[in-house]
Amino acid sequence: MIYAYKSEKGIRAQNEDSVFVPTKSEMSLVIVADGMGGHSAGNVASALAVKTVAAELKRGGAGTPNSLVEKAVCKANTAIYELASKEHKFRGMGTTMVLALLFRSRYVAANVGDSRLYHIYASGGMKQISVDHSYVGELVAAGYITQEQAKTHPKRNLITRALGTSETERVDIFNETWEKGDILVLCTDGLCGTLDDDVIERTVREEADLNRAASLLVENALQAGSTDNISVILVKNEEARS
Fold first, then answer.
1. What is the largest distance, in Å, between two alpha-carbon atoms of the chain?
2. What is the pLDDT of residue 40?
3. What does DSSP say about strands 94-102 and 29-36: parallel, antiparallel, or unpaired?
C-alpha cells in the first residue's frame, strides 16, 4: 500500500488534529482525529485517542477485527474522559476520529464525529463510507437540508458524538472491500467541510503522486477559505488483485 498525508494548522493558532500513518514495520492502520476543547486540550485529546487506538490494535488479542477496532476506540474514549475528569485544564475536551484497518482486499473502518472516510474506486466513482455524527449531518440524512446547505448552516460545527465527552460513546463500524488502484481519503472537516466532494475526487484522480495530491487538497481548502485545521491521509491499494 502507498500512504501519503498532510496536516496543517491553517489560520488557527495551533494544530489540534492528530494523524497516524504506519511505518514499513507497522500494521496497516490509518487514523485521523480532530481535537476540540480550546487551548491545548484539543491537541491532547486527539493525540491521546490516536496513541491509544494504535497501541491497542498493535497489541491485538482474541476477537474479530470489528470487535478489536470497537474495543480500541472505546478504550480511547475512556482514556480521554478519565484524563478530563482528573485535570481541570482538560475539562470538556474531546475529539472526533475516523480510521481504517487495512487488509489486501478489504478493510474495517470506524468513525465517531464528523471526520470522514471516502472510498475512490479505480473503476469510477467515489463514496463516503463514514457517517457524519453532526447536527447538520442528521438534517441531511433526514432530508431536511441538502449537502450544499449544510456547508453554510449556522450550526454546521455542532457534532453529536465525540470521544471523551461522555463516559461511553457509540462507534460506527464499516466493513468494505477494495480493489487494486482504489484510494481511501481520510480527512477532518477542515477539508471536507470546505471542499465539495467532486473537487476532492478530481484532485486525487488527476494527481498521480499521492503526496502531491494530499498537499493540493490542503492548499485548495485553504484557498477556499477553510477556518479550521486541515488534515488528510491518502492510501492507495497496490496489493489486491483487480
1. 53
2. 67
3. antiparallel
Going by C-beta distance under 8 Å and a sequence separation of 6 or more, which residues neighbour residue 236? 1, 2, 181, 182, 183, 210
CA distance 189 to 193: 5
Residue 13's pLDDT is 84
CA-only gyration radius of the chain, Å: 17
Name every residue whose Cβ is closer than 8 Å to that of residue 36 and which is 6 or more positions away in sequence: 16, 42, 45, 93, 94, 95, 96, 162
154 three-state secondary structure: coil
* pLDDT tens figures, 178-217: 999 999 999 999 999 899 999 999 999 999 999 999 999 9
Provide the residue ranges of all domains of the chain, joining segments of one domain with +: 2-236
Q: Which of 49, 2, 183, 30 is nearest to 99 (CA)?
A: 30
Neighbour tally for 207: CB within 10 Å: 16
Q: Residue 25 has what pLDDT?
A: 82
Q: Please, what sign has the CA dihedral across residues 221, 226, 231, 232?
A: negative
**In CATH, what class is 2-236?**
alpha beta
Supply φ then ψ for residue 121, to 5 degrees. -90, 135
State which H helix or E strand residue 238 sits in: none
Does residue 176 surpass a pLDDT of 60? yes
Q: Could you tell me which residue, 90 or 174, shows the higher pLDDT?
A: 174
Q: Quick one: which of 133, 140, 92, 126 has its CA closest to 111? A: 133
Q: What is the DSSP string of 161-206?
A: --BTSSS----EEEEEE--TT-EEEEE-HHHHTTS-HHHHHHHHHH
| Residue 28 exposure: Cα atoms within 13 Å on the Cβ side | 20
Residue 159, pLDDT above cutoff 90: no
